[in-house]
Amino acid sequence: MHSRTTSAATAATGTTYGFLDYYTNATDEEDIEETENQVANTQQMEHTHMASAYITKHETKESIVESRRDFASLKERINSGMSIKESPLPFRKSAMKQSIKNSTTDRYGFQKTNQYISTKDYNDWWNEYCPYLIRRKAKWIKFLERNGLYYEPNLVPSRFPARSEEMARFVRKGIPAEWRGKAWFSFVGGVEKMKDNKGLYEALVNESTDLVNENTEAIEKDLHRTFPDNVYFKEQNSSMLDTLRRVLKCFSMFKPSIGYCQSLNFIAGLLLLFMNEEETFWMLVIVTEKFLPGVHESNLEGLSVNQGMLMLCLKQYLPDVWKIIMDNDDLGDIPDDDTSYLFFLPTLTFCTTSWFMSLFIGVLPIETTLRIWDIIFYHNSKTIFQVSLGIFKMLDPELRKFYCRAHGISTLFTHSDTDLTLKSTRLQENNRDVLGSDLFQLIQNTPKRVINTNLFIDTYVQNTFTQEEIRRCREFVVQSRQRHANLIDRRKELGMTHEERKELLKQERGVISGVWEERRMRTGLWNVGLNRRIKKIYSKGPPPK
């Protein structure tokens, strides 16, 4: 049993979560440098506050029934706010446009604007996006009817068409907001999982009413940090927060290998806008098992694996971006058979921590995040890496500019017959810190301005690889990291110095680089789609021992 908050994750990954930066203002972060006494006093106050919180937040069967009744009423308001009403087209366009344009919040209850998106930018985008949503819902209704599925006006469909290329296109163009919960739950097999575990969630709720441990303490502390700019989460004793508390407490009991980890509150909170309480619980279980395996567990090894996978994807598909990231750590030219960067992750992977921890919440604007979730839950975890590559592809021109400026050169790339190749130049030492800071800010902040979700998805989120290739990529990174870990243990046993360890790693690179030891395949070859020869090798399976 364990819980991890920002400080714990910082110790593990070397950085704070990016999604928290999105939901805290500058004044909150100015107080980071505190004296030891201030920290001790703050911790004591928090502990005292939590002790009282357990008394005031103790739930009974009666209070749970009342909370669920209030939540059902709140859900009606939420669904009404995000729904496209079945009324004459001109009225629908006018009503939706004006209701959002004249409001300070979007249709999900979030503040429309922030330091990255102005009111004008939001309203200009909404004026174009609103008619698009109306057209898409009309096409979805016809699509359901063509597939023999009855649609009753102003109600959410109970079933969706079978998987097909046409269905995938419809999902990519966006699911009607009020349908999202049922669609997501259907795509990931949630209905079946809930049926197979009938009554389990209620049993967990009953068991958790008096539960007090480090997980519940962390959950209580994070409840009011969850979407503080959202109108549905603002009220201190709202049914939304009561429901979120129950979901997270039950999850911590059901998944003891995770317990509670900060960022789960954001994922569960966003799910609650579209799903009921029990659906949200099972969806959170599925997300952590299927889409983000190991990412939230105590050692955060799954997060490191995902970061390594992203580095491999960059090396294969955006090699110039990969070179910039590696060069920022002064790693120089890395041989193809050297996979040590999968264990000693580059510094700039701190920027991408929240991409995996929060599934892009706070990384991209909320509408863009939800459209990405549509695709992720339909296509599986490969979309997470396709979106990550898409962000870096979008950042590519600016990354080159920063790199060029830091190196003091005017021409960064030379043309060859096939691609653009980054010139190998030694970074001036006095520019290294400036470059690192510029790159960090660019990667951290630019995605938060991606309000034009259609442009981002159509331009940058490509079907680059298959789920099977991502599975093999994961397997390769896990094996590589395990071999490096074994070498580190070997160094410790032998009492080797850092330089001796590096020499040992160099000698072992041939072993580390292979998916199968006897075949010694290079890191780029995790992608079975590269050529027929590699596909043939994989089809035969591992060599006999």
UniProtKB/TrEMBL annotation:
* GO terms for cellular component: site of polarized growth
**Residue ranges of the TM segments:** none
Q: What's one Pfam family the UniProt record gives for this protein?
A: RabGAP-TBC
Which PROSITE patterns does this chain map to?
A: TBC_RABGAP
Coiled-coil residues: none
Q: Which domain of life is it from?
A: Eukaryota
Name of the protein: Rab-GAP TBC domain-containing protein
Query: Upper taxonomic classification of the species?
Result: Eukaryota, Fungi, Dikarya, Ascomycota, Saccharomycotina
